[in-house]
Amino acid sequence: MGPEHEFSIVDDCLRAIPFADKVIKDYCGKIMNFVELPKFTFGKEMQLHVMEIKANQPFQSPLAFEKTMQNAVETLSSFLQKKYRANLLGTGMHPLIKLNETGVWPHRHKKIYDEYAKIFNLKQHGWLNIQSFHLNLPYQKETDGVLLHNLLANICPYLPAVAASSPIYEGAFGENVDNRLAFYKINQLGVPSVSGDVVPEYISSFDMYRKDVIGRYSRDLEKAGAPESLLFKEWVNSRGVIFRFDRAAIEVRVMDEQECIKSDVALSCLVRATLRGLMSAEPNFLPHNLLVEDFNSVLANGLSSHVQNPHGPTARHVCKYFLDIATINATEEEKPYLQLIKKRIDNGSLSDVIRREVEKKSQHTDLMEAIVDVYSTLIKCLATNQPYF
C-alpha cells in the first residue's frame, strides 16, 4: 500500500493559510517541491494552502502504514504549531475557504500549472479546494495489472459511500454527500476525455490503455492547444483509477481524505482485502454505464443512494457485500481496521457524521460557529489519530 495524503494548513479559527512554500523554506532553508525525510516525504500540492504527505516506500503492513504516516503528521504538525500556531486539517474539502483566498503554487512546476490554466479554469473548487487520499497498489505482471484495474472499476463507484468527507464548502452544506468528487467530475469539462466518466473504462491490455485512454485524451488536449509536456503522460489521466507505469502501480483516487491516518488505513485495508477476495474468484464485471450511473448516485446520496448493483438495492448493501469479502480475506493485522469500516457503514460516512453534528450544533448557535466547532474537533482527530464518529 502506497499512500498519499492531502491536508489544509489552517489557523486556530479554521482560516486556510496559503503559505506551503514558506513552510518548506522555513523547514529546510530553501523553496523546493518536496522535503524527503528517512521514511516519508512532505511537500507542495497545486493549492498553496495544501500540503501533501506520502510514504517513501509502500507498506505491506497496515500497522507500519499507520505508525509511519502518523509520525509524518506529527512531525509536520509540530513544526506548524511551534513556528506559526498553525494546524493540519483533513477531510475532502476545506469547509470555509473561498476561491480568492488561496492560489496556485508559484515556484518550480509552475509551468505545468500555467499550461493547465490555458486550457482549464483553475479558479474553481475542483482545482483549488479538493483534498483526496490516494492509494497506490502494486502489480507484478500485465495480466495482474489489467485484472486489478477492471476489478477496481467495479469497486470505485461505491467507495465514496464510505469515504466521503466533504459535505460543506464556502460555509454552507453542498448538494452532495461527496462534494469533492462532484467538483472533480466537472473541473476538466473543456476536454472531457481527460477524466472520462471518472469510473474507468475496462481494458484488455496495456497497449489498449495507452492507445484508447492516454492516446485519446492526449490527442484531444493537443487540439485544445496543450503543449507537448502534457501529452502522452499517464499522470494527466484524471479517472478515479489510473495506471502509474513509472512505479508499476495502480492509483485509486476516489477516496476523500479522512479525519485521521487510522481511518485512511481502514479504507486501504477494505480495498486491499476486497481485491484479494475478488481476484481469487471468477470475475463478474458489471456494465460500465451501470457503474457510472451508480457512481453519480453515490456522490449525491452516499450510503442511502439507490443503485443497480446486484448486491444492492442501496450503496450501503454493496459496501456491506465488499466488507464481507474483505473480512473473509483479511489478514490478522487488517481485521481490526475493518471494524472502523463497519461503523462507517452502520453509522454513516464521515461526511454524514459531520453534517449531523454541524446541524445539531447549529440549533444552538449560528452555522459558522457550528462549522468551526466541529472542524476544530477534526483538527484534534488528525493530531491524535482518533476517528470521529
Condensed summary:
This protein is an alpha+beta fold.
Can you give a write-up of this model?
The chain is α+β, with helices and mostly antiparallel strands and 389 residues long. It has one domain: Creatine Kinase, Chain A, domain 2. It is built from 14 helices and 10 strands. The chain has helices at residues 20-28, 62-84, 110-119, 125-128, 142-155, 159-163, 179-186, 206-223, 261-279, 288-301, 315-329, 335-347, 350-361, 367-384; strands spanning 2-10, 34-36, 40-44, 50-55, 87-89, 132-138, 168-169, 172-173, 241-244, 249-256. Strands 1, 2, 3, 4, 5, 6, 9 and 10 form an 8-stranded antiparallel sheet that branches. The longest helix has 23 residues, at 62-84. The two termini are 25 Å apart.
Topology:
Blueprint (H helix, E strand, L loop, with lengths): L1 E9 L9 H9 L5 E3 L3 E5 L5 E6 L6 H23 L2 E3 L20 H10 L5 H4 L3 E7 L3 H14 L3 H5 L4 E2 L2 E2 L5 H8 L19 H18 L17 E4 L4 E8 L4 H19 L8 H14 L13 H15 L5 H13 L2 H12 L5 H18 L5
Antiparallel strand pairs: 1-4, 1-5, 1-6, 2-3, 3-4, 6-10, 7-8, 9-10
Helix pairs in contact: 2-9, 5-9, 9-11, 9-12, 11-12, 13-14
